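Practice problem 4.
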């Protein structure tokens, strides 16, 4: 998986470097950064997508977003299914790990994934095209509709507008369409398919799906309340908007701070308290097997439930919806959160010491990259804050985006290696905590 993503990123960077794909001068590190950001469905930019890339450059970026969102392993499996109909057990395991599927029945599952992805993106593209017709020609509106629909569903956050969606902050249809595309992509393929198959029998939903649905709702509403309370009177963000627009843009901001990089207000104008608390939402992310990054909603939910049971000194194992949470799942959640925090803190330390830039903005950018979110405080113009980094800083952000897309376990396995199987057990030691 790691080598596959690295190979795709380098191929994308080479293609973007071709004269036919860009207008102005494009350094290879910037082409590599753009390719990594698209493949890892992040959305951070160090060169303007609309101003520095031709149609072919934009098309390559969109292709990389689609590959990164669906997962390149999915496309490999689809190719194999068309060529020889059957998959080996190793190919099934690779696919299961790539998409974090519940079973090894990957063939039928992959076909359903492809159907859902294309259907949702098509509906989103049609709605957005209709909205963009007011300002753009028919062909431009179609291209912008397709690009933003795919970018939104894959939680990439790339936009062909220099101000992202700030000029549409009063357009309910555009913002709601983008928002629901982001939400559907962030729920995860397994959840989408289960909702569709059990749409008449919600009691049949698995624990995973229930946690995802409740967790997503809580985070969206919680984010809205938090950002409204902080930014309500800020004249540079919500202060000049009417009541409806405040709630609309708070809803949009809450969704995009967790998984996608679109913005309808100037992120650089947010108060530092908003920037700080938004990093918690970005680190949480969305669902397992989704197009989004982060530690995942289920991971954070499991740890919160476990902490509550420990503090209550309950004689029951941690459980939710009348189902016990296995200890190995709790251990995995703890490992993900600690490892993710460690990666982020190390990256922040390196950038603070090497880039000589404001701490809060570096913190925000690092978490945005690791969570493959893509929102940024900006470079004072239309580019992300990463545009101010030197080659080392940009390279570190690229590594963070890859780590966030692969997942902390896969990336940690590359760094640490797998433990050898041991056929003995040490005696229990008593430790006071």
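Answer key:
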């Amino acid at each position: 998986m790691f080598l596959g993503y690295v190979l795709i990123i380098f191929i994308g960077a080479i293609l973007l470097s071709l004269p036919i794909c860009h207008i102005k001068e494009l350094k290879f590190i910037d082409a590599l950064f753009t390719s990594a950001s698209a493949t890892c469905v992040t959305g951070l930019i160090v060169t303007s997508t609309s101003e520095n890339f031709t149609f072919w450059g934009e098309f390559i970026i969109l292709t990389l977003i689609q590959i990164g969102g669906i997962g390149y392993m999915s496309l490999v499996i689809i190719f194999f299914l068309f060529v020889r109909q059957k998959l080996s057990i190793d190919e099934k395991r690779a696919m299961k790990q790539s998409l974090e599927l519940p079973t090894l029945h990957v063939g039928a599952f992959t076909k359903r994934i492809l159907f859902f992805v294309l259907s949702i993106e098509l509906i989103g593209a049609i709605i957005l095209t209709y909205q963009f017709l007011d300002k753009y020609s028919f062909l431009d509106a179609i291209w912008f509709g397709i690009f933003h629909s795919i970018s939104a569903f894959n939680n990439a956050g790339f936009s062909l507008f220099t101000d992202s969606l700030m000029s549409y902050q009063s357009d309910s249809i555009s913002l709601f369409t983008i928002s629901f595309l982001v939400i559907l992509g962030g729920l995860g393929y397994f959840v989408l398919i289960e909702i569709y198959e059990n749409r008449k029998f919600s009691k049949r939903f698995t624990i995973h799906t229930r946690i995802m649905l409740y967790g997503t709702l809580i985070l969206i509403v919680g984010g809205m309340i938090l950002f409204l309370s902080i930014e309500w009177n800020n004249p540079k963000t919500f202060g000049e908007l009417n009541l409806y627009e405040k709630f609309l843009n708070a809803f949009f901001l809450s969704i995009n701070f967790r998984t996608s990089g679109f913005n309808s207000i100037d992120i650089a104008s947010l108060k530092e308290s908003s920037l700080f608390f938004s990093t918690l939402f970005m680190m949480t992310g969305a669902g397992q097997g989704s197009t989004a990054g982060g530690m995942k909603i289920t991971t954070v939910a499991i740890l919160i439930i476990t902490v509550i049971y420990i503090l209550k000194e309950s004689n029951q194992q941690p459980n939710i919806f009348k189902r016990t949470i296995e200890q190995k799942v709790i251990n995995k959640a703890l490992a993900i959160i600690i490892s993710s925090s460690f990666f982020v803190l190390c990256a922040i330390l390196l950038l603070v010491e090497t880039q000589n830039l404001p701490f809060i903005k570096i913190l925000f950018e690092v978490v945005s990259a690791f969570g493959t979110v893509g929102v940024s405080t900006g470079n004072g113009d239309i580019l992300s804050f990463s545009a101010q980094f030197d080659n080392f800083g940009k390279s570190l952000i690229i590594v963070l985006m890859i780590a966030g897309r692969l997942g902390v376990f896969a990336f940690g396995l590359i760094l640490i290696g797998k433990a050898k199987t041991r056929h003995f057990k040490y005696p229990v030691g008593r430790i006071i905590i």
